[in-house]
């Protein structure tokens, strides 16, 4: 079985709530996207550029048609052909009239320009393929995913203004900030030229809180174009997030709603785990960074499972990064398919992304929170190898249901046996044999001194301890002494100063209650 390359799983086309140009015009009345400079002359043989579908980039050559011109229809047909060959299960061919094309601004990773005519495409350009909102859920049955591109340090943001004078806000979000009868433009500035991505619910823009200057991400959904089935997923995501308050879960700030649109304001983050994997030197992450990220994912999952919430769609692109730091804080996002479900309860609705689906979902036999643990196993495999465990060129459903995956020598001969052992215990077809959150956290691969130090440094940096526990301090300090390792002096002083505080006692009781509940 050949090893599949790592792409975003087979939902590569990002649906937009409307064309970015139209949405931008709605945000800034009377304005549209700023035009790019006039394209240069095409080479004699045509225009050579790259098509980006998800994070897969394909070199293409656009030739002149019989009239001697270039046609966008040809570009759309090429995109459909690529998707049809690489992801035949999408059933996408023939939807080229619903494709939108966006040109990446060479000066900024965050600016996308709607391609209106073929002459907008220049030699060497990167053109991203996006589905318009007119492509409904029935058009293709593979669920789209959220995208939060990396935001480079020092990147400039657009300075557009906005106007929503007809807004009459009606919000039913109890635990986030409530704004009633307030024009969103009086509270937030939305940057229509700063497109952060196209998620399952619409287009995500950069924004800023006018009073504090705090950066935010704002999802804008066109309700008139929004399928009813996906609207229920949005409501579900908001309902889940309003009851979740944890450093490892993306923060929902507030929500505005008009008869035409919904505005969901969330904290602004800096990319996702998949982008971190793909942008790494080898196209995969070293073990020490993977341990660092996976431990944070598990701690956030423990909180979800304690509240009887199953994420149901864990994958690297739903693990957002709070900073561009090499050892970033991570936060889970995209709760559109999350379910409230107990340890012994089972749900039967189809959820998730194919490459990360657990066998029980495919067999329609019901699932519980162990569903998330299968996904964690796939994430570890993807992070360490840069490939999926299941080959998407073959019948992926059969492979998953039989746990038919391999560890090719390249790169697995360089990866520890402990990592492979943990993956094997997570990718168990039988749910009762699959490791739980706490059993995974206790696995020798994650019980690592350097990982613990890295996590403690993160907690010190963000000023909150929620990943590690005070009760482990003495154990790791003793381990360092026995191994002749240097134990950081500032961690000793921190442990001594906080161990007897009321806050520490409260955290210990909370952590203990979560662990006991899950056990």
Automatic annotation (TrEMBL):
Keywords: ATP-binding, Cytoplasm, Kinase, Metal-binding, Nucleotide-binding, Repeat, Serine/threonine-protein kinase, Transferase, Zinc, Zinc-finger. ATP binds at residue 219. It comes from the Eukaryota. GO terms for cellular component: cytoplasm. Residues 190-446 form the Protein kinase domain. It is found in: Cytoplasm. Its main location: cytoplasm. InterPro entries: Kinase-like_dom_sf, Prot_kinase_dom, Protein_kinase_ATP_BS, Ser/Thr_kinase_AS, Ubiquitin_PRKD1-3_N. GO terms for molecular function: ATP binding; protein serine/threonine kinase activity; zinc ion binding. PANTHER family: PROTEIN KINASE C, MU, SERINE_THREONINE-PROTEIN KINASE D1. This is Protein kinase D1.
């Amino acid at each position: 079985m050949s090893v599949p390359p790592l792409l975003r799983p087979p939902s590569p086309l990002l649906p937009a709530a409307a064309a970015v140009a139209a949405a931008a015009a709605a945000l800034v009345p009377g304005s549209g996207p700023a035009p790019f400079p006039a394209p240069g002359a095409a080479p004699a043989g045509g225009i050579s550029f790259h098509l980006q579908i998800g994070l897969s980039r394909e070199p293409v050559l656009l030739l002149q048609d019989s009239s001697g011109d270039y046609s966008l229809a040809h570009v759309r047909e090429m995109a459909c052909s690529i998707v049809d060959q690489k992801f035949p299960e999408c059933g996408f061919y023939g939807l080229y009239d619903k494709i939108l094309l966006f040109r990446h601004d060479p000066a900024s990773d965050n600016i996308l320009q709607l391609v209106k005519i073929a002459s907008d495409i220049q030699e060497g350009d990167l053109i991203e393929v996006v589905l318009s909102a007119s492509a409904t859920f029935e058009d293709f049955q593979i669920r789209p995913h959220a995208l939060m591109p990396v935001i480079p340090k020092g990147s400039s943001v657009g300075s557009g203004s906005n106007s929503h004078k007809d807004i009459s806000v009606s919000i039913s979000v109890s635990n986030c900030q409530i704004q009633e009868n307030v024009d969103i433009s009086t509270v937030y500035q939305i940057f229509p030229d700063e497109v952060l991505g196209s998620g399952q619910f619409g287009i995500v823009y950069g924004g800023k809180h006018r009073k504090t200057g705090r950066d935010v991400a704002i999802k804008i959904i066109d309700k008139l174009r929004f399928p009813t089935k996906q609207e229920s997923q949005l409501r579900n995501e908001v309902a889940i997030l309003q009851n979740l308050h944890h450093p490892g879960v993306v923060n929902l700030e507030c929500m505005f709603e008009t008869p035409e649109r919904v505005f969901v304001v969330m904290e602004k983050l800096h990319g996702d785990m998949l982008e971190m994997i793909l942008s790494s030197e080898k196209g995969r992450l070293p073990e020490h960074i993977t341990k660092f990220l996976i431990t944070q994912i598990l701690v956030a999952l423990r909180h979800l499972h304690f509240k009887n919430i199953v994420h149901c769609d864990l994958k690297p692109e739903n693990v957002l990064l709070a900073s561009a730091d090499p050892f970033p804080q991570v936060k889970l996002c995209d709760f559109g398919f999350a379910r409230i479900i107990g340890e012994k309860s089972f749900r039967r609705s189809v959820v998730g992304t194919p490459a990360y689906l657990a066998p029980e979902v495919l067999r329609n036999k019901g699932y519980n929170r162990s569903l998330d643990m299968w996904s964690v196993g796939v994430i570890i495999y993807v992070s360490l190898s840069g490939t999926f465990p299941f080959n998407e060129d073959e019948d992926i459903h059969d492979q998953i249901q039989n746990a038919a995956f391999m560890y090719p020598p390249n790169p697995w001969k360089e990866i520890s046996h402990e990592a492979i052992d943990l993956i094997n215990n997570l990718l168990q077809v039988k749910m009762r044999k699959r490791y739980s959150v706490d059993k995974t956290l206790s696995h020798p691969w994650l019980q690592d001194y350097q990982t613990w130090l890295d996590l403690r440094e993160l907690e010190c940096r963000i000023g909150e301890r929620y990943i590690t526990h005070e009760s482990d301090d003495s154990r790791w300090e003793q381990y360092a002494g026995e191994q002749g390792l240097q134990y950081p002096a500032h961690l000793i002083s921190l442990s001594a100063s906080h161990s007897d505080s009321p806050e520490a006692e409260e955290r210990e009781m909370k952590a203990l209650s979560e662990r006991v509940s899950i056990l």
